[in-house]
Amino acid sequence: MAKKKTQEKEEVFFVGVQDPLEVRRNILETSKEMVQFLQQHEKLKTLRNEKQEAIKRLREDVRQLKLYINKLRKALPKTKLRIHLHQEHKIFKCDRCDKEFKSRQSLTKHHKLHSKKKKVKVIKKAAKKPVAKETQAKLAPPVMEKPKPMTDIEKLESELADIENKLGRLE
After folding, report:
1. How far apart are CA 96 and CA 60, in angstroms?
2. Which of 69, 73, 137, 154 could be joined to 150 by an S-S link, Cβ 3.0–4.6 Å?
């Protein structure tokens, strides 16, 4: 056995390094790169944690907003009044009354109702109650003007006037 141990010691050989400074420089450069990668990884971890915290806060805020919206919906009266946000949809108005329609077909059906009413002409007399001037002003239809080529400001002003008119009739 002693011979085998001595033979193993003799078989071990060393690799010669011709430039030990170059090897040392390569090891230091790779270790420097590894430290930089680890630093970047730590930055990413902190950013990820911050992002997760921000998402948690946002979720909580959205949950609170939903609660407030539900409370607001319960507090406000229900109405069929809707605001038209887009001007892309053309609105068809009846020239005999103030009704508005989204399609030309609905308007033509409505015109047929007007023509039927003219043929029948049933007049019912009801006991008249004195009506206050304020309610008469609210119930009176708005005055329709002939369309002119309008500027953008005039269009906005007319839309504002229409909205105020409708609000006045709702009160």
Report:
1. 53
2. 154
